[in-house]
Amino acid sequence: MTIPRKENEQAGPVTESTPQPSQPVKTEASDPKGLGHLDLKPAETEAETKPDTAKASEPEKITAVFVYGTLQLPEVLAWVSTGSYLNHPDFKDRYTKATLTGYKRVSVEGADYPACIVGEPTDKIDGHVIYPKYSSEWKKLDLFEGKLYKRIEVEVEIDEGGAKKMIKAFVYLWDQDMDMLEMDQEWSLEDFRENKLADWKALFWGKKLGY
Fold first, then answer.
1. By CB neighbour count within 10 A (0-12 exposed, 13-18 middle, 19+ buried), where does 113 fall?
2. Backbone dihedral region of 206: left (phi > 0), alpha (psi from -120 to 50 degrees) or beta?
3. Is 21 left (phi over 0), alpha (psi -120 to 50) or beta?
4. Average pLDDT score over residue span 175-184
5. Which domains are delineated in the chain?
6. Burial class of 189 by CB neighbour count within 10 A (0 to 12, 13 to 18, 19+)
7. Distance CA 15, CA 19 (A)
8. pLDDT at 58 over 60
9. What are the residue boundaries of the Gamma-glutamylcyclotransferase AIG2-like domain, all occurrences included (predicted)?
10. What is the pLDDT of residues 3-44, one digit of tens each?
């Protein structure tokens, strides 16, 4: 759309600029919980919201990560990886359904995210695997999980269009005091999406993980 010139204005058309996304509004829910370990820095430029395209240089041959909590949402994964959850459309196709057997997902007391712990042989966690593309994405996943978790090697069953197979993957296992966990409280992704995601987006607006 071209805006007509007013009298005495210089010649030449003036075009409307693209509307910029507004800062998300917090809901009436409480502030995000359990994120004090994150080193948040201002994301000042557009370049800082784009991934570092250096190819992943992990020494391990394992290229998959099993995610079972907030990282199952493209908005969260996009923010961790690029510094902006507005890039979430680029991450929607990164997920493959997967199941981890022998481990249990429980809630963390006073936090919005869950923990993965060793369980009984019959315990199962339904989640997804993702495949970080760049070395910066591996670094940021480690930063996001922080000292609360340790990255270990597991085997998961993935579902690719109805065909199931076992693959090796990393998972972030809880590495703190078990007294911090609510063992009988199952964590719900849908509950987080409906009641907490908006508050996380408000907290992360204009910020990125520092490293």
1. buried
2. left
3. beta
4. 96
5. 58-204 (3.10.490.10)
6. middle
7. 12
8. no
9. 65-188
10. 444 444 444 443 444 344 555 555 554 565 556 555 554 444
